[in-house]
Write a structure and sequence with these properties.
The protein has 184 residues and is of the alpha+beta class. The protein has one domain (42-170). It has four helices and four strands. Strands 1-2-3-4 form a four-stranded antiparallel sheet. Helix 1 (17-44) runs parallel beside helix 3. The longest helix is centred in the N-terminal third of the chain and has 28 residues, at 17-44. It is elongated, with a radius of gyration of 20 Å.
Length: 184
């Protein structure tokens, strides 16, 4: 048997080491998000009944602080107060992403890692929406009076996962398409 032979294609239902790594990333992402949210909720005195009140911990004065915020919407506070539709959409999106991870035939490790990061983050925020009908945010980046909307570990996982997928699609190595008429 030739050592140059490609590995046999995997069936969609087969559990591969890549998929195991992806599921570990999901669990670690979800766990780290919930742990940091719980820890910061306690440290900052975040009360779900008092949305915009918490202690503040300056990490880098003039640039970076921890300050609790309960987000009733999605990214940047959009769709605030529409908890039920957001909850249903997030649950459906999580189910679809999990299905893609488990059934994927893609040989791309990067794609599976990115999807796992997105899923871990989405599950973290889904948990918050289910339990409190809002999401615990606490990381604040700012300069002077300008402030980026508060975010959390789940948001970071989702953004990094999306960036990895975009990177893969824009700059990933692609095999050249076979020339027409070559019989390939």
């Amino acid at each position: 048997m030739s050592s140059d032979a490609p590995p046999p294609p995997t069936r969609p239902g087969v559990f591969t080491p890549r998929k195991l790594v992806a599921l570990v990333i999901v669990v670690l992402g979800f766990a780290s998000d919930l742990w940091t949210k719980g820890w910061m909720q306690e440290r900052l005195g975040m009360d779900p009944d008092v949305v915009h009140q918490s202690d503040v911990i300056e990490v880098i004065p003039g640039c970076f602080r921890f300050q609790g915020n309960w987000n009733t919407g999605i990214t940047f506070g959009l769709a605030a107060g529409h908890t039920e539709p957001i909850l249903m959409f997030t649950a459906a999106a999580c189910a679809v992403i999990l299905g893609i991870v488990l059934l994927s035939r893609s040989p791309s490790r990067l794609l599976l890692v990115a999807l796992a990061m997105i899923l871990g983050g989405a599950l973290g925020n889904l948990y918050d929406r289910w339990k409190w009908h809002k999401v615990r945010d606490f990381v604040v980046l700012y300069v002077g009076d300008w402030q980026w909307p508060a975010f959390n570990v789940a948001d970071t996982l989702i953004v990094v996962g999306v960036v990895l997928i975009l990177w893969r699609e824009l700059f990933g190595h692609r095999a050249p398409a076979p020339a027409k008429g070559t019989g390939a």
